[in-house]
Amino acid sequence: xxxxxxxxxxxxxxxxxxxNPAVVANAGLYLAEHKRFSISVITRYEILRGLTVKGxxxxxxxxxxxxxxxxxxxxxxxxVLRAAEIYADLYQRGELIGDADISDCRxxxxxxxxxx
Length: 116
Prior knowledge:
Layout: E1 6-8, H1 10-17, H2 21-34, E2 38-40, H3 41-54, H4 57-69, E3 71-73, H5 77-93, E4 112-114
Parallel strand pairs: 1-4, 2-3
Helix pairs in contact: 3-4
C-alpha cells in the first residue's frame, strides 16, 4: 500500500510523542515508506510552547533532536494565503478541522494533511 506524503499536524505529533499505540503503528508504516516526517514550523512552535510552559526541558531536547532528524517546513506567504482560503471554505461549510488547514498547503499535489 502506498501512503501519501503528509505534513503531520500538532495533534498527531503530540499523540506520537505520548506513544499512542495506534499512532505509533501508523507512524512506523509511514516511516518505512517515506523515511522521515514533515512538520510545519507552526507545529514546532506549538510543541515547544507546550513543553516550555510545562518546564519539560528534557522533552524539549528530545523534540529538538526529532526536528533535526526530520523536515521542519517553513510557512511562506503563499501558504498563509492558501490556508486562509481553506479555513474560509471549511468555515462556510461548517466543517472546521482545527489548525490542520494550514498543513495542507505545502505539500505536492496529491499530498494530504493528517488531522486526527
